[in-house]
Amino acid sequence: MEVQVLYNVFHHESVSLLIAIYFHIVGLHAGCSIVSITATLIGKKEYKPVAKIGAIFVIILFSISPIFLLTDLFQPLRFWYLFLHFNPTSPLSWGTFILCAYPIFTGIYIYFLFKGNVRWSKIFGVISLPTAIGVHGYTGFVLGFAKSRVLWNTAVMPSYFLCSAMISGMAFMLIVALVRYRFTYQDKPLEDREKDLEIIDLLSKWLAGFMILNVFYVFSDITVMYYHTEDAFETVELVRLGKFSFLYIWVDNVLGNIVPALIIIFRKTRKSHLLLLIAAILASIGVFVMRYVMVFGGQYVPLS
Amino acid sequence: MKKEVKWGMVIDLKRCVGCFACQVACKAEHETPLGVWRIWVRTIQKGTYPEMATLSLPWDCAYCERPEEARYPRMSVLFLPWLCNHCDRPICNTVCPVGAAYKRKEDGIVMVDPHRCIGCNYCRAACPYNVRFANPITGMIQKCDFCVHRVDSGLPPACVEACPTNAMVFGNLKDPSSKVSQLISKEKVQVLKQNMATYPNVYYIHLDKDVADPLKGWEKHYYHKEYENL
User: Fold this and answer.
1) Mutate: best of B116, B208, B218, partner A, most A CBs <10 A
2) Considering only CA atoms, which of B123, B122, B118 is closest in space to residue B84?
């Protein structure tokens, strides 16, 4: 039996491309700052450049990210209402205050990091680590609490978002570290060169670890949806494996996660800096495509 | 003692003839801009007509050429007036970051405060019924509010008043003698998307599963694309 819709109303998408870009940029700087703080807390001298590379990009990326949020509002001049009226059940309210606390604590941390004050940079690192996790974790809850969309309303969403944030942040830092090595290694003594290479090696190994974790999240998300309600089943058939399958399965997961992870895992390919650079760029593109598919694929299936 | 009030609606789909009067009356009452609706009548046809899949627009009426193949026993047209359900657990209120979406305590109407809404669209993303929209002129989130200005002055909502067959019934759910309470207790009623745990207050009599399911036949539905090009 055929069913044909003769008349129906579709209201336009509620979450726009600006929010997808915002998710990506927040993921980038949250990932950078989590890596930077972890490197400081571990406290080894070799990791110091990693912490500094991360800290600089946190400042640059954070200063552009709120523009996307404000321009997405239909009433941008009313943004300060968010501070007046706190709603504890809304993740956007949580995000408002995390987004305010994060630059303060991280700013103090970065100040002490560049001053060379190890003790205070560690203390403020510990304080700003939860806000750095929260600043991207809340976006996962924002999508997770929207119960109308099956693609978003999963328990795996916040950790999946955090994991992809770590990938994008680390890939970005890896690109910067590779470029830095390429342009400065001639002037450096052999010891410094080896230290730089060690950092690149370490970053790429962690990157591969998070990519494998990401693939596991995707696998569990898709398979659980197959054993879920009718809505979830149809959505996963239509979105994940239908219209968005090229972007989601091939560009995001195969090119963005599996191929770079394989490049990093094999020792011969890991030694080649060109391949590492390609892997990091692929991972960055993959994470952006993942945000895009999450936002638009989630809204692709109609609700009325 | 003050009488307890909780407004609700019962829509008898056996009586609905698909005249779209509710949709037009609402548009006229609220002056809703082009392209957005507070209430609309979702219309589907189901049956075994062989060329139904190739139909793209309602007026490309393929069965006009061979009417004997597409008649009553083989196919039917179903209507479903779709509006805000004024849920008991409205997810839009839960997620609104500034508390602009709220449920009126005295009568349970879910409303939007136009002086507080910042237009973040989160309520629209969270609503399982897709009834919220952003007004393209003012940029404010709007939706059906049971014509609160009319209800407060003792009148029924515009859609209910315009309904020629009295398919839509509006009344107090807490009053056992009201017509809505009697219909709910007598008839076999159903709500939309019960699995969403929103506890809606708009009840449907004689609801068909295919017309209530948004996923049925939507891939072949090109109407909205044509509509955007207009």
Assistant:
1) B218
2) B123
